[in-house]
Amino acid sequence: MVRIRLRRIGAKGQPSYRIVAADKESPRDGRFLEILGFYNPRTDPATIQLNEERIYDWMSKGAQPSDSVAKLFKSSGLLDRYERFKQGEAVETLMEEAAEAEAARNITVKTR
Questions:
Q1: What residues contact 103, with CB distance under 8 A and at least 6 apart?
Q2: What are 2-57's pLDDT values in tens digits?
Q3: pTM of the shown model
Q4: DSSP of 5-32, one letter per residue?
Q5: Are 98 and 78 in contact (CB under 8 A)?
Q6: Cis link prior to 45 (omega < 30° from 0)?
């Protein structure tokens, strides 16, 4: 089973995360299938960059987001857009909305 989960990167005491599609059995920082985004909780507000088109593809193939990734997806509005994608809404429209939401979300970034 494929999971969409966080993979820790960064120096000791300075974590940032990649959002990756990985096999459920592989270790946290081990083998993964594809990088789907980036999350940095150390900035204010937290930086979230997502490749939504690829995330939709993986989720439509049956990949399940982990609990922490599901919270990130919900805060960025991706889960709502994914539901509309399943209903048959055009991907281009959803990608434009996602770009506007990301621009509004990542206004002034200051690292702690």
A1: none
A2: 999 999 998 999 999 999 999 998 888 888 999 999 999 998 888 888 888 899 89
A3: 0.83
A4: EEEEESSTT--EEEEEEEETTS-TTS--
A5: yes
A6: yes
Instruction: Name the residue among 55, 65, 56 with its Cα closest to residue 34.
Output: 55
The end-to-end CA distance of the chain, in Å, is 36
Identify residue 28 by its one-letter amino acid code: R
Which residues have CB under 8 Å from 86's CB, separation 6+?
A: 60
In order of their start, the domains of the chain are: 2-106 (3.30.1320.10)
Provide the b/e sequence for 45-76 (b: ≥16 CB within 10 Å). Answer: eebbebbbeebbebbeeebebeeebeebbeeb
